[in-house]
Amino acid sequence: MTSRTCSTYSSPSWLRQLNTPTQSRRAPRPSWAHHLQVSAFLHDAIIKHAHHAKRITLREPRLLELASPCHVLGDLHGNLVDLNFFKTLLWPAGPAASAGGFLFLGDFVDRGPDSIAVVAYVMAMKCLEPSKWWLIRGNHETREVNGNTEHYGEGSFLWQCLTMFGDTDGHLVWEVVNTFFDTLPLAASIDGSIFAVHGGIPKALCEPDSSLDLILQVHACACACACGSTFACERVPTRARERQIETRRSREQKSKKEERE
After folding, report:
1. Which of 78, 91, 126, 215 is deepest in the core (most CB within 10 A)?
2. Is 0.85 topped by the overall pTM?
């Protein structure tokens, strides 16, 4: 892994422009249209970073296998205040200058007023630090949920895209970001002993003789089971999936052999 010093870390100018909370968590109305000048550059930058981040996550397996130290962070839900708190506390000089990796458990958008800024930031960091910045999918990373303007109103990711970019460009940004969401891994294991997933352990993994290999084999299009764990759309590259399954089975066989001895 290539390390970088604090002095070399920088974020895109458009990201620094976004990286200011528009209002507090409890304020009821997003203020994007009032406090941020929407430009074609910002629209193009978000789409560009979504495509770039998607190319990275497409190469990742459904089940990430990470090593400690790793900071595990929960739902951001469009709250830039929360994201800035984590940033100040855990990676003040940037992820490259911080010890360990960062694993986010999904639900980046909806409810809070800053969904666009939050998702823009996490995508940009994925592009900058793909081997330290890990994202898994939550139930709000689906079109059925983050496009539900009737239920979430002004807190909806779709509503905020339409408010900032207008009808045509807003729908385009929303759809492009969702195609990035489609490629996100579903779960992660840390040091082979900690299981991280959004919304709880899937029912299928609670069955006798079940294995985490089940997650690696998921191909179904976006659908959330009752507990909130999510199944994403894009296929995992076959060779990577088969290699990870073989490695895991080899470890299990070795462990069983050691127990018998």
Report:
1. 78
2. no
